[in-house]
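STRUCTURE:
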């Protein structure tokens, strides 16, 4: 059993699981906007997530512990290096305008990780900013880039989906912030730190109602979208699942509560669309 736990922990710690969530959301975007035969942008998102998340999580640790890195960290560094090669290969298959926007989101990731300004911490430690930067990055990678690369005409449906995707990721991050409340620096000013856990949960419930309400506009909106009859029920099911996770979220939950189960929600949505869509 120990070997299986080690494999599972590596799967989580190396960001493969979160990359699958990004992959699922990117596939959902392609499904919604009738995008076919565009694998480069999907794998760019997948391998870019592994590289980006591992860089954010382990860059400083790998530089400090060069001579005494444990085997798992060495494997993660190697996987990240292979992902960097894959990202580069996929990058040069993208449209020029997509490459430009992708570089912009790369800059956002670097800003999040590295201190570019003298006597300043990186953006990850800027008070109250983290949740918005992460949600914006996910919207960019899983929705904006696939749409740009497919050269689809941008209309009201696109903006509605951007808002809806932002809300989805924002609410999922709220769960992370509730779980991590006891570990987060008070100066980060996360949502639970500013308004408390109870109000954070209420905020999550309200945003989920808005999320479902936007799906009604999507169904009755532009013909660019793949507006299937099951779309609203499926989104409602996902909203209920997220609401349950919010309800039971507290500081005493194990790390797998968020790092595996919460991050599985986009994957679940992808499977539901695959089965019923």
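SEQUENCE:
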């Amino acid at each position: 059993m120990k070997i299986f736990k080690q494999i599972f922990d590596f799967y989580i710690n190396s960001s493969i699981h979160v990359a699958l969530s990004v992959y699922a959301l990117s596939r959902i975007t392609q499904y919604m906007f009738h995008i076919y035969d565009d694998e480069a942008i999907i794998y760019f998102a997948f391998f870019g997530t592994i590289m980006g998340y591992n860089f954010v999580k382990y860059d400083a640790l790998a530089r400090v512990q060069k001579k005494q890195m444990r085997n798992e960290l060495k494997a993660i560094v190697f996987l990240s290096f292979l992902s960097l090669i894959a990202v580069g290969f996929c990058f040069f298959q993208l449209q020029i305008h997509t490459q430009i926007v992708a570089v912009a989101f790369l800059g956002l990731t670097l800003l999040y990780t590295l201190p570019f300004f003298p006597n300043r911490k990186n953006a990850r430690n800027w008070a109250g900013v983290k949740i918005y930067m992460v949600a914006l990055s996910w919207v960019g990678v899983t929705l904006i880039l696939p749409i740009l690369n497919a050269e689809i005409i941008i209309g009201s449906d696109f903006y509605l989906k951007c808002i809806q995707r932002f809300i989805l990721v924002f609410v999922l991050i709220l769960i992370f912030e509730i779980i991590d409340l006891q570990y987060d620096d008070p100066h980060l000013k996360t949502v639970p730190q500013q308004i408390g856990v109870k109000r954070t949960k209420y905020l999550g419930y309200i945003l989920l109602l808005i999320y479902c309400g936007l799906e009604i506009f999507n169904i009755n909106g532009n013909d660019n979208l793949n507006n299937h009859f099951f779309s609203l029920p499926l989104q409602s099911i996902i909203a209920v699942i997220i609401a349950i996770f919010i309800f039971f979220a507290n500081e005493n939950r194990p790390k797998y509560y968020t790092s595996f189960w919460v991050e599985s929600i986009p994957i679940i949505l992808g499977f539901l669309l695959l089965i019923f869509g």
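REMARK: Residues 2-276 form one domain.
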